[in-house]
Records
---
Amino acid sequence: MNAVQTHDRQTIPGIKDTLAVSSGKGGVGKSTLAANLAVALASRGLRIGLLDADIYGPNIPGMLGLDGRPEIAGDGGQIQPLASHGLKAISMGLLLDAGTPVIWRGPMLAKMIHQFLFNVAWGELDLLLLDLPPGTGDVQITLTQTAPLTGALIVTTPSAIALADVRRGVEMFRQTEVPIIGLVENMSSFTCNKCGHDEAIFGTGGEQTARQLDIPFLGNIPLDPLARSQADTGTPVVQAHPEAASSQALAQLAGAIGTHYLTA
Ligand SMILES: Nc1ncnc2c1ncn2[C@@H]1O[C@H](COP(=O)(O)OP(=O)(O)O)[C@@H](O)[C@H]1O
Ligand SMILES: [Mg+2]
């Protein structure tokens, strides 16, 4: 029996597909991957939107170097997303002064997510990426109930603790009938740039977990200081350093996702 009702889902006019970048655990790289994938997919010519669904901890403005307030325009008072890096983005972080915390209960959170989905002037998009907060809480429930999520990408690190959380996330999407397009393992290994030694700092196990859960394994993204520093400075690594090991893995992932949606 489904724990969550899914029959109230609406479609968003003009948006072909919606992909949630999700994980059970925080800090595994969802926002980093969402920002890099959005930029990489936009550079392939897809019309991309990026919705920062992490209302309490919005990181997309920082990772994309966005500033400025979205304007409210038109008869319906639509929120205008910010255009940058060839894509459109919206985030709670753009509506607040830096450093202001959001202290809301679930119903307010749900309203904001609804606004971001249905009251933003997204225009025509091939794909709307959603950067989710970790876990299986209010935002996930709202999204899986009201949003026409056409896919979920699960991000994990290879540590046993993160992989245990993957199972919960997979179960949530299964119960809410959101197709899981695959699992990506982030921070897979670190190659020392002085001696070339490869170290699996967080262990291994993403691919095996994907197999056990019967979901596609979409690849490994290495732990790369450039991915971190570029996230901190607001130009995603795929754009700033396309030759970097992390960028190449991210570009490959974007290629697989782009193909998935273009041929779907
Ligand atoms: N492949 C990677 N290599 C190095 N640092 C990474 C990588 N992926 C993410 N990070 C860094 O790890 C931290 C957490 O990533 P973040 O995307 O904020 O995770 P989440 O959104 O899942 O909480 C950030 O400082 C980010 O720059
Ligand atoms: Mg995040």
---
Amino acid sequence: MSIESKRLLDPAFGGTSMPADGYSGLEQVRSLGADWYLGQLAASGLRGRGGGAFPASMKWNAVARQPGPRHVVINGEEGEPASWKDRWLLRHRPHLVLEGALCAAQSIGAETVWFYVSDAPTAALLEKLVADSAGGSPGVVIRVSLVPGAYVAGDESSAVSFISGGKALPFMKPPRPSDKGVNGQPTLVNNVETFANAALVARYGAEWFREEGTQASPGTFLACIGGDVAEPRLLEVSYGTPLPDILRHACVDRGSIHGVLMGGYFSGFMPEALLDQPACDEALKPLGFAVGNGTFSVVAKTRCPVSVIADLLAFFSRESAGQCGVCVNGTQDMLKAAVALREGKGSQQNIERLAHLGRVLMRRGACSMLDAAAMVAARAIEHFLPELEAHLGVSCPKCAERPLDFAGGFAIGDVEQLLA
Ligand SMILES: Cc1cc2nc3c(=O)[nH]c(=O)nc-3n(C[C@H](O)[C@H](O)[C@H](O)COP(=O)(O)O)c2cc1C
Ligand code: SF4
């Protein structure tokens, strides 16, 4: 298990001009055929890097089974406020990402590949890349779709809806995009990093891919280490690497932190005491956490955990797409309870309300943003109950120091600097 830049961060894959050896993975797929590649993909065990860790080959086969025409969407919306890895890959490894998507198009029989992004400079770079490499992918049209950024815009159904000419809002599944996606046609939506890995599987095969990571979580993932750190870092980490090693690598002193927001805002606030785990879902899921999209926001002891919880709930209540009553009301109710506690005006009832909503809101929305919000409340009750209770009728100086942050408290500041 390692922390080394040997795959996606390998400079050999860098640059915005066509690689000298062309798209050798795509050539391999063309010459050995779709069955060979889909077999390699299944054997590689590649899972989605957008947060859900869904097995890539299952989704690809589901789209391939549907009648055409079919689409491929490269999801680079990256609405997670503390993440920049997808934009980094699109800026610095665009050919690897495109090669993976073209391998997908070749093997599932898709005619259109969409880059779906919310970052205008990245979109401009991709437009140029597409124009420059025109003709390199006969039979496949490549397009760039620029969406106004929002947390829910990254959901795969929002992507499908926006590209089809609608609003970037989630719809209730089923139907899944694999059955009914862009323009009502079968659509494969994967994360940017998933496609970059798919290109590596095409180039080097499943066995090579499995040389890193664990049996259930093969390969590496890009980790955005941010939050209360001296310097945010983008690392390439093998699944299964101990979390303490990753934090040490990013110069984080465990003694000075309350914990880490694992997998961005989605998976919840993991307390420091639980951090002696390997970075893989096999280890984290039983504890109620996940690697998610690989974002780790470090929470220093200079913050109060209750203000962290309130900030996260403020973010989710702001980002609720306003489509599902249960989400609008549920996120606002949780926020109200957390704010009352944060301000020292809360009661036992507020704590009970958070516990109740953390339980009952799961899987109730059209998209899983509501699950993420409920998870924040549930994990807060599970791991920070003494801190919540200590705020009953008491004004907390650390909470008072910071205004409530509707960006969730850990949004990256100068993203251009991180993307340079
Ligand atoms: C509210 C919400 C936001 C999401 N944002 C993103 C995103 O920014 N990027 C992404 O790749 N997936 C995002 N997802 C997950 C996508 O719906 C989808 O599962 C993913 O793009 C599939 O790719 P993967 O299997 O390669 O991870 C989001 C999901 C939800 C519910
Ligand atoms: S669950 Fe919330 S964020 Fe998701 S679609 Fe419904 S209102 Fe929008």
